[in-house]
Amino acid sequence: MSAPSPMEISLQNPQDNEIPDQNGVIAVDSAPSPSLPHDKVLVSVEVSLKPSSTARIDDVRSAVERMLEKRSLSYTDGPVPVPPDDQFLTENVQRICICDTDEWVQNHEILLFWQVKPVVHVFQLSEEGACEDVSGDGQPSTFNEWILPAKEFDGMWESLIYESGLKQRLLQYAASALLFTEKGVNPFLVSWNRIVLLHGPPGTGKTSLCKALAQKLSIRFNSRYPQCQLIEVNAHSLFSKWFSESGKLVAKLFQKIQEMVEEENNLVFVLIDEVESLAAARKAALSGSEPSDSIRVVNALLTQLDKLKSAPNVIILTTSNITAAIDIAFVDRADIKAYVGPPTLQARYEILRSCLQELIRTGILSNFEDCESLMLPNYGSLKEKLNMPEVQDARTLHMCKQLLETAEACEGLSGRSLRKLPFLGHAALASPYGCDPSKFLSTMIDTARRERSELPD
Ligand SMILES: Nc1ncnc2c1ncn2[C@@H]1O[C@H](COP(=O)(O)OP(=O)(O)O)[C@@H](O)[C@H]1O
Ligand SMILES: [Mg+2]
């Protein structure tokens, strides 16, 4: 019997007949037309508690469910206002957010309240921040640790913009893997594992996506796993030439992880960023250009990871900046391999739109009175707006065109460069205060062209 081939998911292969269900799991929509399904659509609703709240999760969940029942509106991604007359909710709840309806809305246009069965996830963000392993002797630390869901990663998932449901599919695969484990599926009969590999050019959001995915899963699975940690292993530091203690550190690190994993209510994410550096170090050591110490360290790390991956409550997240096959056994066996490419025109437009909206919110861009409430249309409704110029506010329409032009000018730039562009554009302005958004966009187009011209071929 041959091993199942890894599930390749990529931005180039959209599967558009999927709809989200509970836990972010996507169910295949078997309805032949966009007609209504027999069953209700399960929609995730995330409820973040105030840091001061000591309310019971179950009580908050019921209160939110009751509140949603009363609300006869359509469901779209985004915040739901906490009703000011509900004292219990206003005291305890920071934010209520509808998630993952995007794909449904794209295929069916609208999701009405009676079609929906909300699945409410209540959580409280940990404010502890990263806990570094400091060895105290000035050496780089070997790992960072977070308790999830962490305040630091709040909003990260939403800020990452990809097309064709990449995020949704990642969530689905990870959720399925956890479900199979949970239900005790016999791995000799059905094989799967919990290793994720995101590969693609630098700056496309792979590291961020891993962290955001861990955060999402910690929220969606908190009733099964009330405790959740993310350990980010700093692979570079582990085998730096000057790091003679590496072997011991790997052992120490994995002993710690093993202890976490033994607690069955813990869900543990281990992030190994840029795994290609492990393969490179091994190769270099074999050819004699690196101390043989480092080969032992890399091998120790790989053995430990191999051992760890049989634990049911561990998800190993890896990234690689090279798309070619990586000569590391455990990555080779990753079930979830996703190519993360540079943003497409639509993604670029959306990234820049979110940047602009933020500069408007903070008042860095403004010149007219109601500027704060200015909402630029998303890419989906852009075409329609451009086709019916007569019904649009002329100023908004002009800005949309400029934004689109900027997004077009940014072809080839990474997500990371795009998020920096508004800052560079602002720094190039003659006057930094109260700039007109439209003037700002003209500067951005020039900045984008300049940035692009500096890209290596
Ligand atoms: N597709 C994207 N959508 C939104 N932001 C992105 C995207 N890709 C990259 N970014 C931005 O670039 C930053 C750096 O991404 P990072 O996760 O370090 O990329 P990588 O690990 O692929 O090099 C992110 O924090 C994010 O702000
Ligand atoms: Mg990275």
Automatic annotation (TrEMBL):
Subcellular location: Nucleus
Species per Swiss-Prot/TrEMBL record: Prunus armeniaca (Apricot)
Name listed for the protein in its UniProt record: Pachytene checkpoint protein 2 homolog
GO cellular component: chromosome; nucleus
Source taxon at top rank: Eukaryota
Entry's Gene Ontology molecular function annotations: ATP binding; ATP hydrolysis activity
Gene Ontology biological process: meiotic recombination checkpoint signaling; reciprocal meiotic recombination
Main function: Plays a key role in chromosome recombination during meiosis.
Keyword Ribonucleoprotein (UniProt): no
Span list, region Disordered: 1-34
Higher taxonomy: Eukaryota, Viridiplantae, Streptophyta, Embryophyta, Tracheophyta
InterPro entries in alphabetical order: AAA+_ATPase, ATPase_AAA_core, ATPase_AAA_CS, ClpA/B, P-loop_NTPase, Pch2-like, Pch2_C
Entry keywords, A to Z: ATP-binding, Meiosis, Nucleotide-binding, Nucleus
Recorded family membership: Belongs to the AAA ATPase family. PCH2 subfamily.
Major subcellular site: nucleus
Any Pfam family matching the protein: AAA
Nucleotide-binding keyword on record: yes
All residue ranges annotated as the AAA+ ATPase domain in the record: 192-344
